[in-house]
Amino acid sequence: MATGRQSLVAVAVGGKVYAIGGIDHTGSVGTVEEYDPLGNTWTPRAPMPTARASQAAAAVGVKIYAIGGFGAGPQSVVEEYDPASNTWAAKASMPFARAYPAAAAVGGKVYAFGGFDTFGAAMSTVAEFDPVANTWTLKASMPSRRWGVTATELGGFVYVAGGHADSSVSSEVDRYDPTTNTWAVLADLHKARFIAAAASANANLYVLGGSPGTGDLSTIEECTPGMLYAHRKN
Q1: Are residues 74 and 149 located together in one domain of the fold?
Q2: Which domain covers residue 198, as residue numbers?
Q3: Would you say 32 and 57 are in contact if contact means Cβ atoms under 8 Å apart?
Q4: Over the chain (234 residues), what is each successive 10-residue block's mean pLDDT?
């Protein structure tokens, strides 16, 4: 990337990857850069109007939604990016300001999970954003309060893993069903971790890296949802 930064988000739309926001040597930034895997090139794009880091992001159709994060404190702001026109638009704010939330898109809606509030307390709040109606609706809360969780869509469900629960790091894995608005508590991760990464592949969930509270992790864990069991990988 042209701009070195951390605590950013990355979202893939239309065969391109968009690196959004984060922190550089000046503080929180709204920098957006587009990566073209075919050309192996980076292109600067219109910056996010609200500079922030540790936000969540998800794509619905061809548009990207940047949600919450940390700028001048935890944010409730939501902004929509249209790669085709290279423009940003302000959308309805979340019901609560939060930093380090996670987000996933299911069925044309975006779901925001957890985070910490303006007092620095972990949250269990879940909210659903409808891009068409431009409205937020509170949904069933997570089974426990956590920030720095991962949220990954797989098979129409969202798997929320790890996180920080105020005074301790969590190994909890929960599954959210948007259709019934219900939660199931699954087998714990082998290793408690927060601010990790997660992705789905071949009908399995993978949780990568993160921090156990002190230092960093290089381990990867695999969850096979049908078995509701986590397997450690080297």
Answers
A1: no
A2: 140-234
A3: no
A4: 94 97 94 98 98 97 97 95 98 96 98 96 97 98 97 96 94 96 92 96 94 95 68 40
